[in-house]
């Protein structure tokens, strides 16, 4: 039975942990941390039940199913996010959408700009430029708290530090006001 087998469960755990570490490395801290904690808790529960308490295969079913479900869900969400980031209709027209959002922002159509940038960050939550632009829209609209949240998210997903100077300016501007 799969619930009592060590190697398949360790393989599922390792794949799920790799997906969780990808989230942690690319700035999606909450999702990566929650997946990591859940996976380690479930693998510990399964190992203690299997090797310390020596319970039967029926009792091992719940920690094994939980481990497999969390690992597969983490992997599936990551794969879907990566697919959506690259091949969805919004992702294929990302430059056009971003340009339209900036045009709306510059024309002071903040509601439309906000909708455009929200669509971009939902499609690609690793898009630091879209997070910065959404923060700018929120700041201009008078939602400085939401803007700071967007800029923090942009800093988290900007692993190459391409926008570090711009984000530093944004933070300095909000502290001064």
How would you describe what is shown here?
The chain has nine helices and no strands. With 177 residues, the chain is mainly α. The chain has two domains: 2-84, no CATH class; 89-176, Alpha Horseshoe (Serine Threonine Protein Phosphatase 5, Tetratricopeptide repeat). The longest helix has 31 residues, at 57-87. The model has no long low-confidence stretch (mean pLDDT 89).
Q: Structurally, how many domains make up the residues? A: 2
**Which architecture of the largest domain would the CATH scheme give at its second level?**
Alpha Horseshoe
Strand content: under 5%
Element-level helix/strand string = HHHHHHHHH
What keyword list fits this structure?
elongated, 177 residues, 2 domains, 9 helices, Serine Threonine Protein Phosphatase 5, Tetratricopeptide repeat, single chain, mainly alpha
Summarize this entry quickly.
The protein is mainly alpha-helical. The protein contains 9 helices and no strands.
List the SSEs and their pairings.
Blueprint: H1 6-25, H2 29-52, H3 57-87, H4 89-92, H5 94-106, H6 110-123, H7 128-140, H8 144-157, H9 164-176
Helix pairs in contact: 1-2, 1-3, 2-3, 5-6, 6-7, 7-8, 8-9
């Amino acid at each position: 039975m799969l619930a009592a087998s060590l190697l398949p469960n360790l393989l599922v755990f390792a794949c799920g942990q790799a997906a969780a570490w990808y989230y942690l490395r690319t700035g999606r801290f909450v999702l990566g941390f929650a997946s990591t904690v859940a996976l380690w808790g479930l693998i510990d529960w399964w190992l203690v039940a299997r090797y310390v308490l020596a319970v039967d295969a029926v009792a091992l079913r719940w920690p094994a199913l939980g481990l497999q479900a969390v690992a597969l869900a983490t992997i599936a969400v990551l794969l879907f996010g990566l697919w959506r980031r690259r091949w969805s209709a919004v992702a294929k027209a990302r430059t056009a959408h971003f340009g339209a959002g900036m045009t709306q922002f510059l024309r002071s159509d903040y509601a439309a700009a906000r909708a455009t940038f929200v669509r971009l960050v939902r499609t690609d939550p690793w898009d630091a430029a879209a997070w910065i632009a959404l923060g700018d829209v929120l700041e201009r609209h008078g939602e400085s708290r939401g803007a700071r949240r967007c800029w923090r998210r942009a800093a988290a997903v900007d692993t190459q530090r391409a926008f570090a100077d711009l984000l530093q300016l944004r933070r300095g501007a909000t502290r001064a006001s």
